[in-house]
Amino acid sequence: MSALRVLVIVAAVGAGACGSRDDPTPSSGSTTSASTPVSNASSVTDLLLDPEYDYGDEYAGGILPVGDGRFHTDRAEQGYLYLCREPGGGGGAEVRGPWFVNDNTAYDVNAKLSVRGEVSWESSYSMEIAGGRRVITTNDLPRDHTTGEFPVAADDPAYEYDRNPNGIAEQSLTYSLPANPEVLDTPQCMGGEAGIMTTGVSLFNAFDGGGRDAGAWELQDGCGGHPQVSGQYHYHTLSSCIASAPVSTVIGWAFDGFPITGPKVDDRNILTTSDLDECHGITSTISIDGEQVTTYHYVMTQDFPYSVSCFRATAVDAPGPPA
After folding, report:
1. How many C-beta atoms lie closer than 10 Å to residue 196's C-beta?
2. What is the pLDDT of residues 23-52, one digit of tens each?
3. Cα–Cα dist 90/70, whole Å
4. What is the pLDDT of residue 5?
């Protein structure tokens, strides 16, 4: 397990992580939570990728900042989630794991346990463009990787920290997303679900049900996924089982129709949160439906908030079951 996670951090993408009994944040509400902002946290919309620039690989050692409480409900800010209401309902890991370091302000992703098991599933996934919509249908079971064994068994070492009682269950999900989304003048708040990955698996935001950093707190299987209470298997961070995640390749779709890519510009040149705008995106040329297109897109990074942190276009409602 450790060798795989080191490979993910250093050479390609970023470690996957999920929650245990997630309560995806509903889509309305008010109030705000303040935390210490990350560096370069001013408004940074309309960023363009410079393929000749060396962005570096700030987190190559696998020590990632913990994002607990980093959210607002009244504005978007780089390094924070912009939620439509405060997270609530609890759930998630019962115990802080020994992988927390630096007075619990960071965690060592290479030291985290994974939920054991290699369970294969019969997946179903399709995508088509029709009537100006990108229609994706999935049973939410991974197309090209296995999962761990859920509920977490009492003799699994992960059980000491995260006793996820949920089993994985086939879903019936249809996403009808805008095929040609347009960037709005003002970022839009989000709920607990962010989009759908090309693996066929749902993508949730960076928090567990209690507003904690799901990547830091919760234990996942070897591919960075786990089920919530309805059995909906999902990620919060980039799955370590997505074999290649360059910034030029679409690996998912956000609920507003914009693509999601990986962070890799080239070897040891990997985008992190400080390189992206307040919704965790950038504009560059990527391959969409077999064509090279210059467009805004979200980026899945090694560090919090990992993926979509607000929507840059009008988003559709999540089709999944309530948490």
Report:
1. 29
2. 444 333 322 332 322 333 334 567 999 999
3. 16
4. 28
Cα 307 from Cα 69, distance rounded (Å): 16
Q: How confident is the model at residue 318 (pLDDT cuts 50, 70, 90)?
A: confident
Q: What is the DSSP letter of 69?
A: T
Number of domains in the chain: 1
Start-to-end CA span in the chain (Å): 29
Report yes or no: 78 and 37 within 8 Å, Cβ to Cβ. yes
Give the Å distances, CA to CA, from 279 to 72, 206, 298, 305, 317.
12, 12, 8, 9, 18
Tokens read off for 133 = 């919509």
Pairing of strands 100-101, 106-108: antiparallel
From the list 173, 177, 172, 171, the residue with the least C-alpha distance to 128 is 177
Q: Out of 39-43, 103-107, 167-171, 311-315, which region has the weakest mean confidence (pLDDT)?
A: 39-43
pLDDT of residue 300: 97
Any idea what DSSP says for residue 246?
A: B
Give the domain range for residue 77: 1-323
Distance CA 233, CA 228 (A): 7
Pairing state between β 264-266 and 250-254:
unpaired
Chain centroid to Cα 84, Å, comes to 18
Tokens of 122: 């019969």
- The burial of 8, by beta-carbon neighbours within 10 Å (0-12 exposed, 13-18 middle, 19 or more buried), is given as buried
- Report how far residue 173's alpha carbon sits from residue 144's, in angstroms, rounded to the nearest whole number: 18
Residue percentage of the chain with pLDDT more than 90: 78
Q: What are phi and psi of 287, to 5 degrees?
A: -95, 120
Q: Which residue has the tokens 């570096």?
A: 56
Per-residue b or e along 197-234, where b marks 16 or more CB atoms closer than 10 Å to that residue's CB: bbbbbbbbbbbbbbbbbbbbbbbbbbbbbbbbbeebbb
